[in-house]
């Protein structure tokens, strides 16, 4: 898996370098600030792909004494660096656009520039879609971030082509700076999105997608002996996922039976995840006076009250640090 991640990020880096040359050549022959925005973003692509390559290498290293949860969080840092670079490029473009609005360049060879930007946009789109797809398959935030960045670059390139065509057909060359500023605002927005995601991961913000996926797996394999699941925490670092939860079991089970139930739940979760999965399950005994009302065991030998409700397990009640009988009282 790590080799495949490394392969695709290297492809991203090589493509970014080639398109960087193409876009700066386009700017050189046209003198268009709008085209310069595309070229500057390609510098970000190159730097980000290089950093993502290193982050994937580092995240693939096994856990050690200093990093008991592995090195997967570096991918969040990589996405943050990429987002910051995108935002800096956007700010520089705004400055350059305002300057050129008052001191405009004479635009030349716009048709040739349009052809080159069209070619680079097409290549970016293909590579971007592949990286997003591989990022999902390989559970790599760095690959996914690089792919989304290239897709953003493709969108801006396509809109840029439209803008340059309008300038070419109307000779309203002041639109060069206007188009560049509009694109730079979009670039700032996309950069902020990556930084926001990076900060959320580094701060261990709850990941709704990972939590819902875990809830779905447990519901599909739900057993009567699993009276409830609560205090569940799901964290994802790169391709590694860590799950902590409390599992309520019948109090009359012996230690060996409790171990078997816990091990079965751990195995179910581990087999459902293609990357590295670490599961910690804390077993709680049931409280007959309170748990019998929703316990699903039909032949329970110590039942004191009839079952009169079935509690649906969802991300909300499984994440709370309390047994589910609190839902009945509330």
UniProtKB/TrEMBL annotation:
One GO CC annotation: plasma membrane
Gene3D superfamilies, A to Z: Cation efflux protein transmembrane domain, Cation efflux protein, cytoplasmic domain
Primary localization: membrane
Membrane topology label: Multi-pass membrane protein
Domain Cation efflux protein cytoplasmic: start-end pairs: 211-286
Ranges that cross the membrane: 7-27, 39-58, 79-98, 110-130, 150-168, 174-195
Domain Cation efflux protein transmembrane: 9-203
GO BP, sorted A to Z: intracellular zinc ion homeostasis
A UniProt-annotated Pfam family: ZT_dimer
UniProt GO molecular function: cadmium ion transmembrane transporter activity; ferrous iron transmembrane transporter activity; zinc efflux antiporter activity
PANTHER family: MITOCHONDRIAL METAL TRANSPORTER 1-RELATED
NCBIfam families: CDF
Family statement drawn from the similarity comment of this UniProt entry: Belongs to the cation diffusion facilitator (CDF) transporter (TC 2.A.4) family.
Name this polypeptide is given: Ferrous-iron efflux pump FieF
